[in-house]
Automatic annotation (TrEMBL):
This is Putative membrane protein insertion efficiency factor. It is a peripheral membrane protein. Keywords: Cell membrane, Membrane. The keyword Membrane applies. It holds the Pfam family YidD. The keyword Cell membrane applies.
């Protein structure tokens, strides 16, 4: 797949990343540390979208939010291991990994 086509396909994923980054910077601090799981639900969704893509990442994030309720045991809940060949910038945006 050509580099420019891959960059175009990553735009929706990066839009979701931008929305979650803004949420985590502006809204999440207002709630404080209330999540029963580690990482927090918003961090889990962000990592899932970055590593698994928009559709599967949103699915994984939604499932995690549904599990996060007052009667949940909580604990460490990492995202499934991805099989991706993509890189993530320091800001969290997803780029095509440069071939060596």
């Amino acid at each position: 797949m050509s580099g420019s086509l891959l960059r175009l396909r990553l735009i929706p994923r990066n839009v979701c990343v931008a929305i979650l980054v803004v949420y985590r910077a502006v809204i999440s601090p207002l709630y404080g540390d209330v999540c029963r799981y580690y990482p927090s639900c918003s961090s889990y969704a962000l990592q899932a979208i970055q590593q698994h893509g928009m559709v599967r990442g949103i699915w994984l994030g939604a499932r995690r939010i549904l599990r996060c309720h007052p009667w949940a045991a909580g604990g460490v809940d990492d995202i499934p291991e991805p099989q991706s060949r993509l890189a993530t910038t320091r800001a969290g945006f997803v780029l095509a990994r440069k071939e060596q």
